[in-house]
Model the fold of this input.
Amino acid sequence: MIKLDIERFGQYEFEDGITIKEIITALEGEGKKIKGVVGGLLEGEIIDVHTPIRKSGKLKFLTKKDPESLELLRHSLAHIMAQALKELYGDENVHLGIGPTTEHGFYYDVEIEGKRLTEEDLPVIEEKMKEIINRNCEIERVELPRQEAIELFEKKKEIYKIDIIKHQIPEGEPISVYQQCGFVDLCRGPHIPSTGEAGAFKLISLAGAYWRGKEGNPMLQRIYGVAFWTEKELKKYMNMLEEAKKRDHRKLGKELELFIITEDVGGGLALWLPKGAIIRNEIETAWKQEHLKRGYQLVYTPHVGKEQLWKTSGHVDFYRENMFPEMHIEEEGYFVKPMNCPFHVEIYKSKQRSYKELPIRLAELGTVYRYERSGVLHGLMRVRGFTQDDAHIICREDQVEQEIQGVLNLVLDTLRSYGFDEFQVFLSTRPEKSVGDDRMWEVATESLKKAIESVGLEYEIDEGGGAFYGPKIDVKIKDAIGRMWQCSTIQFDFNLPERFDMYYIGEDNQRHRPYMIHRAIFGSIERFIGVLLEHYAGLLPLWLSPVQAKIIPVADPHIPYAREVAQKLQEAGLRVEVDERSERMNKKIRDAELQKIPYMLVVGDKEWQTGTVSVRTKKKGNMGVFTIDEFIDRAKQIIESRSQEL
Done:
C-alpha cells in the first residue's frame, strides 16, 4: 500500500501502482467533484493520468491553469507530430529519434527515407496534426518486457528506438510505450489524457541534428514547434518571435558593421570590426574601473598551458571533450585554455600567503577556447573563442559571507547600469556526489542564501543542482521583450584548492585551506554584447554607441560648418561622424536612424549663423536647437551617468 496526501482532498491509502485516472474514479465515487485534470505533480515530479504510482508522497492534480501542465501538452504534441509524419510519409519510411519538450514547445528528430523536409512542408504537417487532435484519441500507457519492446520496434524498423532501449535504458528498468490512434512510441511520458485535449501550436523551423549529438552518427532532421493551451498565448509568443527576429544580434552585427564570423577564420571565432571594438572597449574599460574600485587586482594569463597543469586541475580527465586537441612543443603537450582558473591558482601560489593578505581578488578579461560542435554555434551567443570576465576570490572562512555579499552587489550594480532591472536568481545546492567537507558546504551555502536575502531578491533553490565542487548562485536577466538570459554566476570551488594544495599561513602559524569563489558577471563579453544588441534592438545607450552623433549638413555649402562642429565634439571626447554625401537631408536622417545612431545634429544656414545645432533622436524626434556647448554638456552628463535616456 502507498499513502498519498492529495492537495484539496486529504490523505488516502491506495494499492501500489494505482494511476491518477483510477484515483479520480475512486474520489468521484465518494461524491467528490473533480474536473479538467490533465496530469499530476507527485513530490515535484510531473506524471500523467496513466502513470503507475509506486511511492507515497504529496500529490497535486494538474489542470490547464497550472504552468507544469504545459510539459504534458508539449510532450504530447511531439507525439502527435510524429504520428502525423508517419501518416503523411508512410510508417515504414519514417524513423523516429527523440521528441522532448523545450522551454516553449517541443521538437522531434526524425529520418524520412526518400524525403528531405523543407519549410513548405510544415503547414502540411500542422494540418495533419490538427486532424489527429480532432479524432480525440485516448493516449494510453503500456509497460512491456525488455525483449518484447525490442521486438516491437524491430518489427516497425525503428532503429533509433532500439538503440535507446539497448544503450540508454538499464536492464530491469520498466520500458513504457504510449499509443494513440494506432500510433506507438517508446516514451517515459508524461502525456495529456487524449489528443483532443491538445492546445494551440505552431511548427516554426527545421534544423539538422546528429543522432545522440555525436558527429559521425546519422544526421536527422529536427522539427521545432511551440505550444500553449490557448490561441491568445500562442499569438503573444509568435509576436515575440517576430520581434526577436528584428532584434537578432547576427543581423544587427552585420548591418551595423560590428563583428563578422567567416569560414576562412573558423566557426565560432568572432572578428571585431572597428565599431564593435568600441562597444567592447567601453564595456571592458568600465569593468576594469569598477573592479579596481572594489579592491580587485587585475592579472593577465597566457592562452595556452602545459598538459600537466590541466591534468592537475582535472580538465584532462573530466573536460577533455570540450577542449581543443593537444599540441606538442619540444616533446611536451600543451592545450589552449578552456578556463582561466588554474592560471589564477598559480598566481596565488607564486608566493607564500598570510592570513593578513586575504581576501585576494584576482580579476581578468581572459579569452578561453572551447570545442563547441558546429551545430550549436550561434553568432556571439555560442562561440568557440570568447572572453570571460573572470575573477577568483581567495579568502578565509570568516570572510566568506562578506565577500559573497560584495560580489552579488557588484553583479546587480553592473547589470543595472546596462538597463537590466528584472532578475531571476537560482541557488544550487550540494549534489549527491561532491568534494569538500560538510562544514565548507554549509558555510558556503548559507553565505549564498544570506547574500541573496540581503539584497531583497526572491530566489529558487535547485536542490542538489550544484556542481560537485561547490554550491552556486546563477542570475538571469530579462530583456526588453521578456526573454530570460543566463548571465552571472557566483560559484564556490572546493576542488581546485585541494588539487593544487592551496594554503595560507594562519594566525597560529599553521597551514589552512582557503575558500575559493569563482565569479563572472557577464559570463562572456561576446554573449553579453549579443544580449545587449537584442535588448536595445541595436540602439545602444549613448555611452556604448560606436557613433554617438551624426552631423547632417542640409546642403553641400554647410559641410565646412558641420566639420567645425564635429571637431569641437571630438575635442570634448564624443564620437561623431559627418554625413557629407550629396543626398537629401531626410534620407541622411533616415540612414542615421537605420545605423542606430543616438543623435542626429542637423546644420543649415540658421545653425551656421547662430553657432548652434538642431538636435534629433529616433525616439523623441526633433528636440530643438542647442548651442554646441549646451549639446556637449548634455551628452557628457548622459555618458558619465550611463543613462539609458537621451
